Every structure is written in structure tokens, then in C-alpha cells.
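Researcher: Please predict.
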Amino acid sequence: MNRIALGCAILALAATAVAAAEIRTGRDLVNACSAYMMIEAGQDNNVARAPHPCRTFLQGFFISLIARENARTEAMLKGLPYSSKEACVRMPDFLSYREMAGRVVKFGQANPASLDGPAATLAQRTLERDFPCPPPKDAPR
């Protein structure tokens, strides 16, 4: 059953990847999210929810994040080793696409070296900076 869920997540990610294909680098993502932020909050909700490259990229990114976390949890429950190059993040209960777009733009502006790397890396580093997991209680200080 978990393979089916992972397969669905991969198909959804592939579909959103096609729509956000023009976003490859951190610079592309920051530019797209800057434009997304310009959509005025007071506009009709249909305009704010219309497909936009930044929002589409973020949707795909979060689908892959969920799939990665599900795989990590499944490995832990089975007692299998699981390593990840990404740092642990603890997401808030709610994070709007507009807020995430603003965080991405802010991180990109504060870390210009990240603009030339992959867009997904910039998004991941934004989460790692803004929503780090708390250290384990038994960790040395």
C-alpha cells in the first residue's frame, strides 16, 4: 500500500514538474516567487489561486517532502537504516503558499550563493532555516 502512495506522489510530482519546468535554479524560483508575491492579497481569490509557476513549484516540492518523510517514517518503523542529506524540519500546522514564497525570496536575497544552485535546494534550505527540528532532549549542549 505504501508503494501505491509513493507511486501516486511521484506521478503528482511529475505532473507539477512539467508545469514548473521553467524553474530550475534558485534564481528562477526567487524571481517567480517575487512575481507571485506581487499578486495583491485583495484581488479575487480565483486570481490568487490561478496556476502560477512559483505556486506550482512549491506544490511539487511539498509533495516530494511528504513522500520523503513518509519513506523515512516507514524505514524507522521497520527498523531499517535511513539517511538523508536534508536536515530535519518541523513544519507549522499551516503555511500558505504566499508565506512560503515570501520566505523563499527572503532566503534567496540573504544567501546569494544559493541562487545559482537547484531551486529545490533553495526551498529545502529555506525550510531548514525557518523550521528546524528542536534538538533531542538527551543531546549534549
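Model: The CA atoms of residues 9 and 63 lie 6 Å apart.
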